[in-house]
Amino acid sequence: MIERNPISGDAVIVAPGRAARPNEFRQMSDRCPFCPGNESDTPPEIWRDGDPWQIRVFPNKYPATEDHEVIVEGSDHARGFDQIAADVAARAVNAWIDRYRAMSRSSRYVCVFKNHGVLAGATILHPHSQILGVPFIPSRIAKEAEAFTSRCALCELRDEKIDATQNYRWIAPRGSMMAYEQWIVPVHHTNEMREGLELASLLQRAARAMLAISDSFNWMFINFPQQPAAHWYVQLFPRLTMHAGFELGTGSAINTVDPRTAAQRFGGSRP
Ligand SMILES: [Zn+2]
Ligand SMILES: [Zn+2]
After folding, report:
1. In this model, does residue 28 exceed pLDDT 60?
2. Number of domains in the chain
């Protein structure tokens, strides 16, 4: 169910069913629904890669909306995205892109994201990502899409570089919200993700770099459907602090780490 904030009109998904989902970190269950052999614990599979499988896609058992899927990345419960084989990581990225496209046909916006660790909001340890389609353009996306109509800030951006590949720049942008926040930005201007290329290897490196700082991290794919002037990117950060009263009360952030320091910590240099 979608409700609107009475003042701003911002959409809120009301999903009481999600409160019932088990929390593996809280109650030590002995059976992981994402492990091989327990496939019957999840809703019927949408797609799998390989036999025995390395990647599985299925609807979220506790969906926030009608379009809410889980992508399990690897059959090994304890091997995180930073540790899975390079080819499995690359196939996971392709699976996100395929499902993003498929869900974009029925949802106005599709958010691809990973919650790794307790502070990032994960309730199951087994490495996985989620894809959530919503019947509205989220206010953050609408606001950024509007900003792109006058100029492409990401084509112009020359902020602290951590590394670059042929098709992506990995940077610690100035004015970022979270400590050690990074963006992975495609070199070529496109508003939606279309191909993985070196993205999997950059994400694996970023995951390793973040896990050296915190047990938890998030990444989110920020796409701009129907807005060719916009430039898609991946936003990533380790979870160190909680957003608290000031951030929630103002929508403004206090970042305790200078992005220049973050770039150097991750092995980058000043531009
Ligand atoms: Zn498992
Ligand atoms: Zn651009």
Report:
1. no
2. 1
* Residue 215 domain boundaries: 2-13+30-265
- From the CA of 56, which ligand is nearest? 1
pTM of the model: 0.94
Ordered alpha helix ranges (H), the chain? 86-104, 139-148, 153-156, 199-211, 245-250, 259-265
Strand ranges (E), 31-190? 47-49, 55-59, 67-73, 109-116, 128-134, 160-164, 168-172, 182-186
What is the whole-number distance in angstroms between the Cα of residue 190 and the centre of ligand 2? 7
pLDDT at 271 over 80: no
In angstroms, what is the span from residue 171 Cα to ligand 2's centroid?
Answer: 15
As given in the structure block, the two tokens for residue 6 are: 């009475």
- Number of the ligand closest to the Cα of 232: 2
What's the 37 CA to ligand 2 centre distance in angstroms? 45
- Is residue 25 domain-resident? no
Answer whether residue 24 is part of any domain. no
Ligand closest to CA 154: 2
Strand order in the sheet with 47-49: 47-49, 55-59, 67-73, 128-134, 109-116, 217-222, 233-238, 182-186, 168-172, 160-164
Minimum-distance ligand to the CA of 153?
2
- Spatial distance between the Cα atoms of 71 and 50, rounded to a whole number of angstroms: 14
Q: How far is the CA of 26 from the centre of ligand 2 (A)?
A: 43
Q: Return phi, psi of residue 201, to 5°.
A: -70, -35
CA of 79 to the centre of ligand 1 (A): 9
Output the CA 157–ligand 2 centroid distance in Å.
9
